[in-house]
Design a protein that fits this description.
138 residues; 5-stranded antiparallel beta sheet; two-stranded antiparallel sheet; 28% strand
Length: 138
């Protein structure tokens, strides 16, 4: 099975956001994925919801043997393990979160299902903080 190049965005705005992101990266690595590049941390205001909690965000390139859906399940499990309660897809809106892990690109794949869209167009084209983080990764 070959390795797949994946771009992820990680964000947190609850607790020690930087430590939350670092712990999520550890869990990604412990799951057999190779982390090859990590951006600088960037702080940003919440997008599409109101909160007084500022986000800390990073972009990362990983190499994985997981399929897109397996990877989605894997990162969603990390979110739950770390204490994330509300997923924006299931709750229908955004809220504060201890960790958020989004799959932005997976090789050059174009994929769309109810649970996953690759590439993640909102992050690539609409959100300013994402465009800053992804400029050297895409």
């Amino acid at each position: 099975m070959s390795q797949h190049k994946v771009v992820l965005l990680l964000g947190s705005n609850l607790g020690d956001s930087k430590k939350n992101i670092e712990r999520a990266l550890e869990k990604i690595s412990e799951g057999g994925n190779e982390i090859s590049q990590v951006s600088e941390f960037l702080t940003s205001e919440p997008v599409e919801f109101v909160s007084s909690n500022i986000f800390c965000n990073i972009a990362s390139i990983i190499f994985t043997r997981l399929s897109p859906i397996q990877l989605l399940d894997f990162v969603k499990n990390i979110e739950v393990e770390m204490g994330r309660i509300n997923d924006s897809k299931s709750s229908g809106g955004y809220s504060d979160r201890i960790i958020d892990i989004d799959i932005i690109k997976y090789n050059e794949l174009n994929f769309r299902s109810e649970r996953l869209e690759i590439p993640h167009k909102k992050h690539l084209f609409e959100r300013d903080f994402s465009k800053i983080l992804l400029k050297d990764f895409i």
